[in-house]
Amino acid sequence: YRQDRNGAAPMGYWTAAEYEPMDRRGMSELLHIGGMYRLLDGLKAKHPTLSMDNCASGGRRIDIEMARRMVPLHRTDWQPQGGAVQTSTPAQGIMLGLSPWVPLQGPSYSSGTGGANNKHNLTLFLSELSSTDTTTFDTRNTIAWTEQLTWLNAAQRIRPLLIQDFYPLTGWSIDESGWLAYQWCRWDSQLGSDRTDDKPLRREEGTVSCAVQAFRRWGSHTVSNTLRLYGLHASTKYIISDWLESRPQEEQADSDTVIRTGASLMEHGLEVLIEGQPGATMLLITAVHVEVRQ
Fold first, then answer.
1. Residue 19 contacts by C-beta under 8 Å, 6 or more apart in sequence?
2. What's this model's pTM, rounded to 2 decimal places?
3. What pLDDT, on the 0 to 100 scale, is given for residue 56?
4. Which of 126, 145, 224, 287 is most solvent-facing, going by the fewest CB within 10 Å?
5. DSSP 69
6. Do residues 163 and 106 touch, judged by C-beta distance below 8 A?
7. Angle CA(41)–CA(46)–CA(49) in degrees, nearest 5?
8. For residues 98 and 123, what is the distance between their CA atoms, to the nearest angstrom?
9. Is the omega angle on the peptide bond into residue 278 within 30 degrees of 0, that is, cis?
10. Bridge partners of residue 210, in order along the sequence
11. How many CA atoms within 13 Å lie on the side-chain side of 294?
């Protein structure tokens, strides 16, 4: 079930004098919203497995009550702006602002045809990368589509991270002269399941896998940024790799692999280099092996 109803559209009816006298202002809106909740609850009661998509020009009805009932698979109608500089900055701001509250969400963009603008498309792809995908792609440009398909396949193994613990690594900003970055971490308790006792697993047990996304805006003159990470195990060693690498998580490190301890990444930070303007990168932080603290 998909509901697409702009929040402001019925406002004229709710406030019109012929429908609502001055001493009753607000009652029409109250009854309308209450009726909508009863409709949604009734649908869920009759169809418990029903998927319900909350859309209202994208994000105009993402509130606590609606978040209890539906998920925004199309979080906004905003699209990248045309002109000399196409920017993904608003998409990055939306991701950082919404993700702490609504982890299950979907993007709202079309990839375009690629070609000379394909570097922008990669930045846009990472800016909109979400736990679900409602993207549209133009497959007529074979070269661009082949590259986009590579991104989609690589993203499949990362999506389970994108509904897990979320950490902003910079402040929220849509300033085109700055950077924005955030991090997702997944705690995998199953990797500590070889224990023989019945005690519940603690957060320090098992292992942690993370994805770090960083964005350099088109007006930024800073090529690198050092980001202090969160949620890692201090004594565990982590492999740092680009998201497009095909290295399996359990692969042992070789001489070219970047390895840092959790303590180092959290205390001293991870230096991220982005040469393009605008540009984006995503790095995977994966435990070299499982360490269980006693």
1. 13, 28
2. 0.83
3. 82
4. 224
5. H
6. no
7. 90
8. 19
9. yes
10. 185, 285
11. 0
Which residues does 74 contact at the CB level (< 8 Å), separation at least 6? Answer: 53, 55, 58, 106, 107, 108, 134
Residue 110, C-beta contacts closer than 8 angstroms, at least 6 positions apart: 79, 135, 136, 137, 138
Cβ proximity of 213 and 126 under 8 Å: yes
> Can you tell me the distance from the alpha carbon of 193 to that of 205, in angstroms, rounded to the nearest whole number?
9
Q: Which residues contact 224 (CB under 8 A, 6 or more apart)?
A: 271, 272, 273, 274
Q: How far is residue 270's CA from residue 247's CA, in Å, rounded to a whole number?
A: 20
pLDDT tens readout for residues 21-64: 778 778 888 888 999 999 999 999 999 999 999 988 767 888 89
Both tokens assigned to 238 = 């982590």
- Measured CA distances, 169 to 165, 229, 268, 272, 274 (Å): 13, 7, 13, 12, 16
Q: Are 135 and 153 in contact (CB under 8 A)?
A: no
